[in-house]
Specification:
heterodimer; A: about 120 residues; alpha+beta; Ubiquitin-like (UB roll); 3 helices; about 20% strand; B: about 325 residues; mainly alpha; Ferritin; two-stranded antiparallel sheet; 2 strands; about 65% helix; globular; binds fe (ii) ion; PaaB (chain A); Ring-1,2-phenylacetyl-CoA epoxidase subunit PaaB (chain A); PaaB_sf (chain A)
Chain lengths: ~120, ~325
């Protein structure tokens, strides 16, 4: 390569794919491209050769603010957070059985609501 | 493209089950209905944290204190997520986040009736977690299939956190239900206090014009009454299994009609509570919200002075 040739600088863009309208955009990697438009094209070629998606975001890497990896304190948490999680209340099932009933879960509600849809499809 | 054909294309998209995104064209009516719904939802999350917040310093054990504090945090977080969705809808109408937040202080946006009520005992904290969250979860789960993408996505996250709220509420009331006579009586009192409010929470039986339009726009897919019936299905047997009674002598399941028959809540009374902020705790909680918002104004102003640094590649 000729010493005198000017260097070609591509920008680095981080790529976020939204797989369906029900999903948020999720980071999948990055591409090098000369412009945002071409970064979108390149991202499609690199990341969506098989997977389906409804939307793509590319963000110039220099616009990403990140935490340093060598600062674990940033993510420090008290040792036990069970009180904040569904898994911290597994005794509910046993307690309800004392009353001859079952614990109720979000999935039960979502299921009954969707069943309702099957039975009484709103007329259009 | 003319407005009429744009509208037609929009409705076709809805009928195909497509989701609408913030950047898509949408009819003004769709935007207004959504904004009203999500704005009230957002504000109700924030106001809804206040009755339980009252119990943070008085929770009976350290574990209960941590758990209820975690829940209050979640509700505030839900308010934040929803405000972002509302804000993007409101921007083309010239409304800002500040407007959306202060509307509750000036009474321009309503919040749910249940958050205007008193929570005088620890059993109320439990019943709020169990039944008020239970009712709210039925409402929110029914909205998971909404036609507006940004709302659907945020609701998915909110519902995941609500699963913890369900178990948390059940755990408190199960402890009380297995407790002393006094504790059981306290629990029964709280159920009595909340029952009517809970029925009102789902809204009027008749399908109002706005509700009908929301169903046509697939913003929601269920009627108020369908959701209230779901609430009965899920909670009446559980309340009774604990040996508690429900303060409604008319309440029964009609096998023929396949639905619960119940005494109507006092629609007029609760309607006034919500519209005119006339509930037992409305004024006090709005005053607290105003104080929190105004007292910290200087902090927001100081932080806003931060200007974005030059990005370095
Ligand atoms: Fe919530
Ligand atoms: Fe909740």
């Amino acid at each position: 390569m000729e010493q005198s040739e000017p260097r070609i600088d591509y920008g680095i863009y981080e790529v976020f794919v939204q797989k369906s309208h029900g999903d948020f955009h999720i980071h999948v990697g990055s591409v090098a491209a000369p412009s945002p438009d071409l970064a979108l094209q390149t991202a499609r070629e690199n990341f969506l050769r098989r997977d389906r998606a409804v939307n793509l975001w590319i963000v110039p890497r220099k616009h990403v603010y990140a935490t340093p990896y060598d600062d674990p304190d940033f993510f420090a948490r008290e040792t036990d957070r069970k009180y904040r999680e569904v898994g911290g209340y597994t005794e509910n099932g046993r307690l309800w059985r004392m009353f001859k009933e079952k614990a109720l879960h979000l999935e039960d509600i979502v299921r009954s609501l969707r069943d309702l849809e099957g039975n009484q499809k709103p007329t259009e | 493209m003319g407005d009429a054909s744009r509208f037609e294309r929009f409705m076709e998209r809805l009928h195909r089950g497509e989701k609408i995104e913030a950047t898509d064209w949408m009819p003004d009516e769709y935007r207004q209905l959504l904004l009203k719904l999500i704005h009230m939802h957002a504000v109700s999350e924030i106001m809804g944290a206040l009755p339980e917040k009252e119990w943070v310093p008085k929770a009976p054990t350290l574990k209960r204190k941590l758990a209820i504090m975690a829940k209050v945090q979640d509700e505030m977080g839900h308010g934040q997520l929803l405000l972002r969705v509302a804000e993007d809808l409101a921007a083309p109408l010239g409304k800002t986040r500040e407007d959306l937040v202060t509307d509750v202080i000036t009474g321009r946006v309503k919040f749910h009736n249940v958050f205007h009520m008193e929570a005088p005992t620890w059993a109320d904290a439990g019943v709020i977690g169990w039944l008020v969250d239970g009712a709210a979860i039925i409402n929110q789960a029914a909205l998971l299939d909404t036609s507006y993408g940004p709302y659907a996505r945020v609701l998915k996250r909110i519902c995941a956190e609500e699963s913890f709220h369900m178990q948390h509420g059940e755990n408190i009331i199960l402890a009380l239900a297995r407790g002393t006579e006094e504790q059981r009586a306290m629990l029964q009192d709280a159920v009595n206090r909340w029952w009517e409010s809970l029925l009102f929470f789902f809204g009027p039986v008749e399908v109002t014009d706005a509700a009908r339009r929301m169903i046509e726009y697939k913003i929601r897919t269920k009627t108020n009454e369908e959701l209230r019936q779901q609430f009965f299905n899920k909670y009446v047997p559980r309340i009774r299994s604990l040996g508690l009674t429900i303060p409604d002598p008319e309440l029964r399941y009609d096998e023929q009609e396949k639905r619960w028959i119940y005494t109507q809540p006092d629609w007029k009374k609760f309607g006034e509570i919500v519209r005119e902020n006339k509930g037992p705790k409305s004024r006090e909680r709005i005053a607290l919200r105003r104080f929190a918002h105004m007292d910290q104004r200087w902090v927001r102003a100081a932080l806003a002075r931060y200007s974005e640094p030059e990005f370095v590649g």
